[in-house]
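Researcher: Next entry in the queue.
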Amino acid sequence: MIDLSQMTVVVTGGSGFLGRNIITELFRHGCENVYSPRSRDCDLRIPYNVRRLVNYELPDIIIHAAAQAGGIGLNSDKPGELFYNNAIMGIQLMEQARLAGVKKYVQIGTVCEYPKFTPVPFREEDLWGGYPEETNAPYGLSKKMLLVQGQAYRKQYGFNVINLMPVNMYGPGDHFDLNTSHVIPALIRKISEAKMLNQPVIIWGDGSASREFLYVEDCAEAIVLATERYDGAEPVNIGVGSEITIKNLVRLIADLIGFTGTIIYDVLKPNGQPRRCLDTTRAFEKFGFKAKTTLEEGLIKTIKWYQETHDLVR
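Model: Structure for this entry, 314 residues:
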């Protein structure tokens, strides 16, 4: 087990939704030497920036949480950009970390790495059973290649890389841009604005697809626990182990917001992957993680934060 209080940790993406929560959790675990570069000052796609970051900060641990990601719309519109940016950032950072002798490298992957028709619940052993769901395959495969890189580096160089695969996250501090946001923030904004404007809500797909959602603070806890306690080559699912259909999720969010208007499902739009639900056994067995926040509890906190911080008419 690593004593984080004695470590210098670099968190990429530290100003982002997940990264901010990881940093908070690191502090809670006694880690005081945390550095997180801003993308405007340290574009990780540029090799010089990556070398400078690693060799100047001299971290003991790197948690690579920086990513370009979004919902079905962004994945459909910018597949090349998503593949290149996520792959090149991770490939360069892992290589420079290895060369600099970083003690541990934590790669944050994604549930999008799984094949489209993975048996439910998704087990880590099923990761190579087929091609990912088409709308997010370039993003998922870019992350999957970083898993391959980490395992290859462990085998050839003895470099301590671990790979964690969270499901869809949500919570206060998420971004609610309808062009780039994930499922829950997009639904919260759509339904909130529909209520205010007395308009119907239009939902992509037919609502039959299922998803699993993890409260962001729980995800951050899992990542820090794994950083402290896990040193294996095999990837680890990070989730809650239960799913909900999009139709039931829409109804739940509508009820919590108090929306009683019309909900329209646009069946000409894609559903995305048919089902997502993880087997979280390995995370509990290897580093004792079990999610604490129920979906309804997390939604109440997220909706409250959104209503307190956003002008609903944009």
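Model: The mean pLDDT is 93.
Researcher: Noted, moving on.
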